[in-house]
Protein 1
Amino acid sequence: MTDHEKIKNTFLDILYPRRCPVCHCIPEKRGQKICGGCKERLKPVAGPRCYKCSKPLRDPGQEYCQNCRSRSHLFEQGIGIFPYSTLLQESLYRLKYGKRQEYGTFYGELAAFYARKQIEKWQIQRIVPIPLHRKRMEKRGYNQAELIADALGKQTGLPVEKKLLQRRINTKPQKDLDPLQRRLNLKDAFIAKFDLQGENILLTDDIYTTGATIDEAAGALKRAGAGRIYFLVVAIGGDG
């Protein structure tokens, strides 16, 4: 970073102070990305996880969560960095609807820190963010999954492909639907534009609950010739 850029950033920090992505307060020290108290509270998933989707498991003797035991998925494996709690719920809401685009960069960088070895193990060739429909993109102005993917790609050196996967149906919001309704809501919602010739793809999104969105996107990528499909999300729900 040049001296001019440092001066510019300092000036912008004074005019528009950086806010902690977790509590939305201004950190004690200028330039901090997260305040000290929230740094202690923001802990990655620990303990036993589902082998397939990485949901936290209550029983350490289990290999799969209830969802992955009851249905098959089109992805190989996935990883969620943090448990989806009230703490993350408020933060990710601000990311999606509160114009806090810098939160996406913050979480993408953290994802690279915690998941780098797993991503290397999967031999990923491209990162593909879950796309928004054109109408929703125009209304919101940005796609939070793309922000996460950009930061992740920058940290890992992997290419981010934003035009490969398109959302051709403006589906209803998933949060108020049950698992079956979620799958039906997303049926044929995505289309992949390129011939992928067996490439391994990493899908990125903010939250994983039932896996309906990831499955539908993975199906579109496989129809376009992709090899193994994996996913990474910032927050993942619990088992059951």
Protein 2
Amino acid sequence: MHKRLILLLIAAVAGIAGFRAAAQIVSFDGRPMDADSVRYDFEHQPYFGLYKDNYFIFGPAIGPKMTRENTNAKFQVSIAQRLTRSVLPFGTYLYLFYTQKVFWNVLQESLPMTDLNFNPGVGLTKPLFVKDRYIGKLTFMIEHESNGRDGEESRSWNKVSLAANIFVDKQLMVHGKAWIPIIDSSNNSDILDYSGIYQMGLQMISQNQRFTGSVTLVKRRGWNLNYNTIVELAYRFNRRDNQYFFLQYYNGYGEGLLDYNKFHSQLRVGIVIKPRFFSDY
């Protein structure tokens, strides 16, 4: 069922938005992303900004009967802070990253926040240029993720990660991320079987910069074709703003740390605020 839903969602975005290839890559706000303008942005933009998507969404599980327990809100806050004024060797920039993801059972009595995931990291980002055009970036980072609990509900792990975001053209960006895990909790020693060992995906942007659609596959450990699948669709209210109507479909394991080894198939809708250039995953 979830495979049919994924295909329908992707087809809907492609059909509505009318994707076409173009030579000049531009940002979400429509400005050219040539080498000089991007270097200027990296060196002069505010030190504090967005990292991943920032969103608030709500929705039910797909498959079982809708209940107060399996219908919840999910929100994510993600920021980046540049730590150095000058450009570092090899044209890199040092950043502090922080992402917090929260699952909130707003339909239950007392409105409990059932799972809080904290993900700080520090890393070097290198913008990539080909023939004086910005084509993406590489990021090498060390990151930690935990749920801040103790006892049997404690979950945590660390990752040494290498991520890449590459524009194929103006309207198609591919991304990937691989990590070396360092698992420091006996309560989630098998987390690679559920939360994965690498991820890959693509993001499509409509010609008028109003629609975006993305698919991310997170490979769980093993030789089987076992992936956690994330499909996201977004429609911008106004071309001058970075606020979007947002739909996210998650199918697989590892959506949150507390129940990382439990299967989830969840469809949620809400609002997302996106970074200027493209979303990180």
